[in-house]
Amino acid sequence: MSVKYILQNINSKTIQANFCPQKIAKQKLACLFCILLILSASCKKETNENVIKFTPLEINTPSGFDEMTIPDDNKLSLERVNLGKMLFFDPILSRDSSISCGTCHLQNIAFTDNLPVSRGIENRLGFRNTTGLTNVGFQPYFFKEGGVPTLERQVIAPIEDPVEMDFTLFDAIERLRNHPIYPQLILEAYGREVDAFSVTRAIAAFERTLVSFNSYYDMHNANNEANAMTQEQINGMNLFFGPKANCSQCHAGGNFTNYNFENNGLLQEYLDQGRFRITFDTSDIGKFKTPSLRNVEVTAPYMHNGSLNTLEEVVEHYNTGGTNHSNQNELVKPLNLSATEKNELVAFLKALTDREFLENESFMP
Ligand code: HEC
Ligand code: HEC
To answer: Rounded distance, CA 186 to CA 20, Å?
Structure first.
């Protein structure tokens, strides 16, 4: 049996069909008609319960992987996810309507961009490398210092960041209220008018569907399929999980992260101080949330500042043992890897690529 995530009741066709403008127009008409009927039938206050459409969605994680926690106030439905996807790819949320979440988070490179640090509206320079969104729904907190507790709340940050979308949530909501389609879709998905609650929840709902469990490594694990990984990759895997390279101590578990904040000895002096920015504890200087390594082959450049261009450079960084910053984790130390071993590690990192995820039509606008 191959490892596959299944979004029950979902396939790209249903999503595409729901995006058909005529259908939306029809649903809108039908619903308006409903509301008119109800209004004319009684003078009681309309409860929005009647307009909600809820086609349940489930995210089935393979065994050995923690369940994703879905908040009670944002249960997944096809309507919510479709709405969130529209918002994710709509530049309407940026002040000058020039960029969307999808401008910096591109699917074919695992929802990153290919820049050292991001570029926002008017080409404004950001200060960090864009994080990929592979399996983002499993993250316990967000951003590299982990300062944001939920995906719902995370949505507000890029909208309001002056070097990203440079808008306000308040103004974005005003704009959406005057949009020909969104008020109806939001009413159907959440039973309420356009507001911060519904907009942030819809985008978070879409992000929770960005799950990836079908890399070459997963196929190898699930079937012991002879051809899923090359011998070089298998050797690299043994190094990765073994005591010589120690990678899996931090890049642990099904998502290749312990979700901790670690200093991996990248720099001697950290302009971006990472976790320290919210704790003000000097032992947190230079500590960043350990990134997942799923799909890492396509997310170059690497590290919080995008300073390493290739996986070879990353492996070389670990092999030399870092800069010996006072907060550097002791697992980062000279590894004495041979040239062959370095190639094997790089080859293994490429076995974490999930083509199905990168090409999944359900995630496309
Ligand atoms: C200008 C480029 C840009 C735009 C636009 C943008 N992002 Fe990001 N995103 C980034 C960068 C850079 C980071 C890393 C920031 C950090 O850690 O401080 C990031 C981080 C994230 C994370 C955190 C992932 C994690 O594991 O911690 C999420 C989730 C996310 N973005 C979603 C969104 C959503 C949703 C939108 C639209 C509302 C959006 N982004 C718009 C550049 C962008
Ligand atoms: C002490 C914990 C720790 C160990 C051990 C460790 N890493 Fe990391 N790794 C991190 C942290 C933290 C980052 C992010 C640093 C940053 O953003 O500046 C990172 C980043 C990376 C990245 C870049 C990911 C990206 O998206 O930018 C790769 C690739 C990587 N590590 C591979 C490895 C390999 C291979 C090994 C073993 C040789 C290893 N790591 C060992 C903590 C660790």
So the answer is: 16
